[in-house]
């Protein structure tokens, strides 16, 4: 179908023109939550199979290679060849080559900067370009986040009514200037009209309830339908949270279009629609994708980043920090999130730039003030009571709940997503979104805790009860007259309102758990942070109220007797909601340090770091007992992305010769000899195979390794030579040596390809333990290494071979999970 055509585009490009146009594509990547079939890509066989494409020649120098002393021919390869060193779609970059290119560029700039004032200015521009690009990224991320927050709030309230005095005001803003509101009903003002009041002319009664119910469902379905249609038609990569794909991209994978202009535009619009539809999703994860789109687009303004994929990923790491900064109002947490969760390569200067990008983004968001509370986030709270040592027991129990919920959610959601991909149901994404949105709206409306915006729900659950709170959760009985009252005494018997709220929260908890499983992975922008936090906050608030009432009715128990006297201020249910939210989010994502920092920045609860740490670590331990993968790693594996997780340990005792290819049943390794192939023979090897690279050897007899040449670079070089150099024919000799071989006088002009040869490919011996090979691939970002025995070439190990081997060692079918 159209999505499959989208994913297969760009494969098997052998002509120079198609390669050049692909490499200049401004949109770096694309592939979130969409069903991709990588089985047909050239990436499946780099040589003997895999790795990512073009570029293993990290020691490459396009201008290198001295002219032969035995010939006066102009070597056209002394000039840089357009297209050499670039990458095809769905291929992995060569980190070593990219870093080598950047060092060479830096040396060239430093050597010229003293020649003239212009060269010195260019060197200053180059030095400051990193700070400029992260500044622009932070500004754009903060502005877009503020726009999304304001628009989502307005459209969410549109489901319930409209402001007659100013259509662009949401419910809260509409009643700010009203003089006719009361303290108990501060959200009711004559300027705000529900749909029942507008259509039927009445605010109460069964007819009014049914009309509001109908309009709520109508708007929810309209928003959801518009969101999924925009994604399907204009930017299929705008769906999902984007974090699994961002992690894969930062590890070096190319998915063109994933961080492009169309994806940014459609993701921004559809994120507002998806959140306003009431689906069980959040905007925090997709905001990381939005920020990375900004970083990718701005990186094309600076050649230092546009021409180097490794340097570009430094910008994307900083952009992901800015995304979390504006999503949670947590600049420090954003930097730690980028370091702990998404980044593959994180040098010290990237840490500084990430910090600066997060700072700029947070400053812009604070200037916009989207929530009208002079805070970066909606649910900023302050607690006025300390926590006590005994409370670590319920906090740890909440951590256990978070770990169990995380393990259950990951298994259930992955099972549903796998079923979606393997059945006909996955072919109708619009119908699925409409169905889930309809069920969500129908079930959510009767319960006030599921009807309201999820962020508003979390704010209410986090807030401590006081004299200014009118929530049903704060309707305690006064000890003086037994009626419902709001006093400054937090420990008092719960009234009917609290018990009714407890039942509604229990139903909301079940509803959120079920719907989040089926919502995450839909073809609309969908984050997981807010739904997970909502589930934890509901569970935590229930536990907090239970402990509070236990302390009130049994204050003489030894647990409470020492520190919780009658009428004393001892239990804060809102704190339990905050701890539960952190525990559930940690159970799903397996984040630790960054999560604790995000939560205390989010809530201002710096005093409660120890309870947060205890709950988050407990949730991680419990979750790891059922499986070490977080939800993002699980989706990476489900989609078959070539991602080597640095957190995963390789504990097997296999050797390189057991993993390398060719194996005994395979055909011999496809190789090139250094000086006895013709152009016709070289093109025959390229046309008859689908490998992405070829080892170059001295001769078939010696099998002594000379270097490694990439299929893409060879194709580009031949096409370029035919256009620029006369005399290149099919029977022209191709040589990879420094000097041309001795040829008869009537022979056509030879073709020198030494400058595209990687003369220092990584090699290991056939007896190298695989745990060392895996470590080399992770730390150096390799795509392939060659296997030798006493200096003779035996085979090749690619990144995909390692992933297949690791899957096989884990008793998984290696072919069923790779690039499906």
TrEMBL record:
**Domain of life the protein comes from:** Eukaryota
Which PROSITE patterns does UniProt cross-reference here?
CBS
CBS domain location is 660-726, 757-815
Pfam families for the chain: CBS, Voltage_CLC
Where does it sit, as one GO cellular component term?
Answer: lysosomal membrane
The membrane topology of this protein is: Multi-pass membrane protein
Instruction: Give TM segment ranges.
Output: 128-148, 216-238, 258-279, 286-303, 315-339, 388-410, 430-449, 501-522, 534-555, 575-600
Q: Provide any one GO MF term from the record.
A: ATP binding
Its localization reads:
Cell membrane; Early endosome membrane; Late endosome membrane; Lysosome membrane
Ordered alphabetically, the record's keywords are: Antiport, ATP-binding, CBS domain, Cell membrane, Chloride, Endosome, Glycoprotein, Ion transport, Lysosome, Membrane, Nucleotide-binding, Repeat, Transmembrane, Transmembrane helix, Transport
Task: Report the family membership.
Answer: Belongs to the chloride channel (TC 2.A.49) family. ClC-3/CLCN3 subfamily.
Q: What does this protein do?
A: Strongly outwardly rectifying, electrogenic H(+)/Cl(-)exchanger which mediates the exchange of chloride ions against protons. The CLC channel family contains both chloride channels and proton-coupled anion transporters that exchange chloride or another anion for protons. The presence of conserved gating glutamate residues is typical for family members that function as antiporters.
Give the PANTHER family listed for this entry.
CHLORIDE CHANNEL PROTEIN, H(+)_CL(-) EXCHANGE TRANSPORTER 3
> Per its record, how is this protein called by name?
Chloride channel protein
Question: What organism is recorded for this protein?
Answer: Lates japonicus
């Amino acid at each position: 179908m159209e999505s499959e055509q989208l994913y297969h585009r760009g494969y098997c490009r052998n002509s120079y023109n198609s390669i050049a146009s692909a490499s200049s594509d401004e949109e770096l990547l694309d592939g979130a939550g969409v069903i991709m079939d990588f089985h047909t890509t050239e990436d499946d066989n780099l040589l003997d199979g895999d790795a990512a494409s073009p570029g293993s020649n990290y020691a490459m120098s396009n201008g290198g290679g001295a002219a032969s002393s035995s010939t006066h021919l102009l070597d056209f390869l002394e000039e840089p060849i357009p297209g050499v060193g670039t990458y095809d779609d769905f291929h992995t970059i060569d980190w070593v080559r990219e870093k080598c290119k950047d060092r060479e560029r830096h040396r060239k700039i430093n050597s010229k900067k003293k020649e003239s004032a212009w060269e010195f200015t260019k060197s200053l521009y180059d030095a400051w370009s990193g700070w400029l690009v992260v500044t622009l990224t932070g500004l754009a991320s903060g502005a877009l986040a503020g726009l999304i927050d304001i628009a989502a709030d307005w459209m969410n309230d549109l489901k319930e009514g409209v402001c007659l005095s100013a259509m662009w005001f949401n419910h809260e803003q509409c009643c700010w200037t009203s003089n006719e509101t009361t303290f108990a009903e501060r959200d009711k003002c004559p300027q705000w009209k529900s749909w029942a009041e507008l259509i039927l002319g009445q605010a109460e009664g069964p007819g009014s309830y049914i009309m509001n119910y109908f309009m709520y469902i109508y708007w929810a379905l309209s928003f959801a339908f518009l969101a999924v249609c925009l994604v399907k038609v204009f930017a299929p990569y705008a769906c999902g949270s984007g974090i699994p794909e961002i992690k894969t991209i930062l590890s070096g994978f190319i998915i063109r279009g994933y961080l492009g202009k169309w994806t940014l535009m459609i993701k921004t619009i559809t994120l507002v629609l998806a959140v306003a539809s009431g689906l069980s999703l959040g905007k925090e994860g997709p905001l990381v994708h939005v920020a990375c789109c900004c970083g990718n687009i701005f990186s094309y303004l600076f050649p230092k980043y546009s021409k180097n994929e490794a340097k570009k990923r430094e910008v994307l790491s900083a952009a992901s920090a800015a995304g979390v900064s504006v999503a949670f109002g947590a600049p420090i947490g954003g930097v730690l999130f980028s370091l702990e969760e998404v980044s593959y390569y994180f040098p010290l200067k990237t840490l500084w730039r990430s910090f600066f990008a997060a700072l700029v983004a947070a400053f812009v968001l604070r200037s916009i003030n989207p929530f009208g509370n002079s805070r970066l986030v909606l649910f900023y709270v302050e607690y006025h009571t300390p926590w006590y040592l005994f409370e670590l027991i319920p906090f740890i129990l909440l951590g256990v709940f978070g770990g169990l919920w995380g393990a259950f959610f990951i298994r259930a959601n992955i099972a549903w997503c796998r079923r979606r991909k393997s059945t006909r149901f996955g072919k109708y994404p619009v119908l699925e979104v409409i169905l889930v949105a309809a069920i969500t709206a129908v079930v959510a409306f009767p319960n006030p805790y599921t009807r309201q915006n999820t962020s508003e729900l979390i704010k209410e659950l986090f807030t401590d009860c006081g004299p200014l709170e009118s929530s049903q959760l704060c309707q305690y009985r006064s000890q003086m007259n037994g009626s419902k009252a709001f006093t400054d005494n937090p420990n008092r018997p719960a009234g009917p309102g609290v018990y009714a709220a407890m039942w509604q929260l229990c139903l909301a908890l079940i509803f959120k758990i079920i719907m989040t499983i089926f919502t995450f992975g839909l073809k609309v922008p969908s984050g997981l942070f807010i739904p997970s936090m909502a589930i934890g906050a509901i569970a935590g608030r229930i536990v907090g109220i239970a402990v509070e009432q236990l302390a009130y009715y049994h204050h003489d128990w030894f647990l409470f007797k020492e520190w919780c006297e009658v009428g004393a201020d001892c239990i804060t249910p809102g704190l339990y909601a905050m701890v539960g939210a952190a525990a559930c989010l940690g159970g799903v994502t397996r984040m630790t340090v960054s999560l604790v920092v995000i939560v205390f920045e989010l809530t201002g609860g710096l005093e409660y770091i120890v309870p947060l740490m205890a709950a988050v670590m407990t949730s991680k331990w419990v979750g790891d007992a059922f499986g070490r993968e977080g939800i993002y790693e699980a989706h990476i594996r489900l989609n078959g992305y070539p991602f080597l997780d640095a957190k995963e340990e390789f504990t097997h005792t296999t050797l390189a010769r057991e993993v390398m290819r060719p194996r005994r049943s395979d055909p011999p390794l496809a190789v090139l000899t250094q000086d006895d192939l013709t152009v016709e023979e070289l093109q025959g090897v390229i046309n008859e195979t689908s490998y992405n690279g070829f080892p170059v050897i001295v001769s078939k007899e010696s099998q002594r390794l000379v270097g490694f040449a990439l299929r893409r670079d060879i194709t580009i070089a031949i096409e370029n030579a035919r256009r620029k150099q006369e005399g290149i024919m099919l029977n022209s000799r191709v040589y990879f040596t420094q000097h041309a071989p001795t040829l008869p006088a009537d022979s056509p002009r030879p073709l020198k390809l030494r400058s595209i040869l990687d003369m220092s490919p990584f090699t290991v011996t056939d007896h190298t333990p695989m745990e060392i090979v895996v470590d080399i691939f992770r730390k150096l970002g390799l795509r392939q290494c060659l296997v030798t025995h006493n200096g003779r070439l035996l085979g090749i190990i690619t990144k995909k071979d390692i992933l297949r081997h690791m899957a096989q060692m884990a008793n998984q079918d290696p072919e069923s999970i790779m690039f499906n």
